[in-house]
Amino acid sequence: MDKFLxxxxxxxxxxxxxxxxxxxxxxxxxxxxxxxxFFRKKMVxxxxxxxLTVKKTNYLAKRKDFFYENHQTxxxxxxxxxxxxxxxxxxxxxxxxxxxxxxxxxxxxxxxGGGQSCDLGTINGFEVIDxxxxxxxxxxxxxxxxxxxxxxxxxxLEIDWDRRFDNMQRHCGEHIxxxxxFRLFGGVNRGFHMGEDYMTIDISxxxxxxxxxxxxxxxxxxELETNKVIWGNTKxxxxxxxxxxxxxxxxxxxx
Length: 255
Hints:
The chain is built from seven helices and eight strands; from the N terminus they run H-H-H-H-E-E-E-E-E-E-H-E-E-H-H. With 255 residues, it is of the alpha+beta class. The protein has a six-stranded antiparallel barrel with strand order 1-2-5-4-3-6. A two-stranded antiparallel ribbon has the order 7-8. The radius of gyration is 31 Å and the shape is elongated. The chain starts with a helix and ends in an 8-residue tail after the last helix.
């Protein structure tokens, strides 16, 4: 802004020159003076706006880089967190579907993946109807196209906790049951899906030649042993690895 004023000092000189003249004798000079002042004010405002826009763009670019590198996904680091604030890095509307898509610098929303459905909830009071991940970026789909949300805004996030906790319990139970099938019968989990009303687990009997198919007695035994783990309130520990090679160092049956 200072550079602009120095380069355009003739405007100030003109204003001083016009001001010493008689307004009564030269009413058109008064009009010119007003116009020059208005022009100067608008140019200053424009420069200030452009400066703020550049700063905001640079800030958002840094937040994007930070998000891409650090994956601020609280559904991994703090699974019991129900609310959070986040900065909007990207906001797009789809008028044909009456939806909006947001990318945030951090999120508590678990995206669909690994056989589990996504978290639902609200962002700034608007319903979240889908959450998915693509190239390590989490996208949030809102119902409706709200014009009040803009890139750079801070928004409030809240998940549907009943849904999240139900998914946590069911997914944990699936891991326990799969482990029991492997321990008892050499059954390997080859598929898993969590529906709204039911779950499916695909067990392949391939690690123990003594078993070729699952009968009712085997299923009841696996269920009993799984419930024993749950009744014992066994501690559950979760680990996250950057590579598959790191995970394979753990005593796991599948990584």
